[in-house]
# Entry
Amino acid sequence: MKERFLKKDDFKKFADALADIYRVYHIRKGRDENLHLLRYSGEVKDAVIGGVRPFEPLKNFFFYAREKVVDGYKDSEEVGEGEDKAFCILGVKNCDLAGLNISDYVFTQGDFKDPFYIRNRERNLIIAADCSKAIDTCFCHAVGNQHYPEKNYDILMSELSAGYLIEAATEKGERVLGRHAELFDAAQRKHSEERDRIRKHAGEEVEKNIKANEIPPYTDYKDIIKENIESEIWQREADACVECGSCNVVCPTCHCFYLVDASRDGDKEVRYKVWDSCMYKRFARVAGGVNPRRHIRERLRNRFEKKFDFFPQVCEYYACTGCGRCFSGCPGKIDIRKILKDLVREKKAKAKT
Amino acid sequence: MQKNPYCPIKAKITDIIEETPAIKTFVLRPEKAIPFKTGEFMELTVSGLGEAPFTPSSNPRIEDTMELTIMDVGRVTSRLHKMKKGDVLGVRGPYGKGYPLKDFEGKEVLIVGGGVGLAPLRSLILDLLNDIDRYKKVLIKYGARSPKDIVYKNQVKEWQKNKKLSLELTVDKGDKGWKGNVGLITTLLKKNMGVDIKNSVTIVCGPPVMMKFTTFKLIESGYSDADIYLSMEKNMSCGIGKCGHCRIGPYYSCQDGPVFTYDKIKGYHTIWE
# Structure
């Protein structure tokens, strides 16, 4: 679809126009110097379109941390449109878009589908953006992803020095841009050239990270768990785990939840779908106390098995997008990059003997 | 509008049968009939408390009611055990893959149950009895901790009299009145069980440790891994392959099971826990 150009000074007009229809969230530098995904307040001076991914993963907007799924049995047999405004998320980076490959598979495929997720996926508008740089935790290339949007978005917005190069990727995106044609100029060749230069530069930064941390490429991941079931890596890493579950919370692909019944709200039965963490001891426990993953090392191994063994078997993706959030947020500094490096190394060593 | 897979419908408890001191059978009449195939399971809700998965123990030909045989072992089940006739529960389902009865036709079917594990097997036995002539033979081996822990006592007596079935019981520990076999379930799985193993399938359900040793014994007797059907009890929360709790290797127990043939799962760790 055709490329448009939006001047820096007109960004506020565009954001305001979006806010008429959507609950707009965008990336902003927080007081902690991290980038955060926050509600658009009408203020654009600290908005970040390029940069890198924010601290919070995108999944919250599609798979809520806590969502009411039953509000009286009779009234909840079917799922309608939802009454609130849909979300528009602005500045989404590719590591989060890649996470949608996994959640789309989980919630929209199979004999049963999740109508709550599907509703959010259909209504919400994703305006994606190129990463204009990398931070030292970025390693998307190692797991086979790019640092610029590849798919799963409606509009692409690449930040340039004087403005933004804008292109719709879906009909929904094109409709939104078409409604505000007066804001945009035609894009020029120099704009796409500048975008390519920024992409090249940011890509080199990602590569530098991968080299510095010796992160193996995804083509080496086959059977890294199967060949290392009994490895000492699991205990070594588990020793640092405090079972907080933050790795699950910030991960763009973690999708586990449990159903929680609240006490009766008047006459109504109320049920929530709430994020769960596979690092919690009770995660796989059954009534009576049998627990297949009693030890942290087993739960950590299960987490990796799910990401690097289960998902490539059931759909075509590894469930790690290289966003680096899990070890950024880990109080024990458990580093997925190091674990991948060690798993691949031990697998190769085993193959030789 | 899409159907909400997380929403139960109401079901009234029309009867409660006390099987043993710790096990009761609940007869439920859902507001709308929930037809199921034998081996498929339901998620049962105690309103305000939570859900737990159970496989019906009743004949699937009966559609307006279903029976669930439940042991008092956890949060939800202990509340269930305090409920009375006329109380209302939530139920949704059926989920999972049932027993593939078509594949059992013409074969000798060996059913091995332990404790409350006879619950899903009762549904299977009743379904086999619906068309008993399609199966060459149906043998049942059932073990309980003690004579008072045997479930479906009256039905077991009927089955013992039924010429179309061969039923053997054992208890881990007998009492004064017990004249039958004493010993673990594996003591009933002798080499010479009167089964043509090459033309037989075996269906096992019971506590994890019982299933483990039973499986090993059956393999020793000559059963191939693909002919051993096991019920994998895992923490199944959503029941529809979304919530992530019940994974075994590349499978979800709720969606791809809970009944698996041993060849499918034997390579994965922690299947017996």
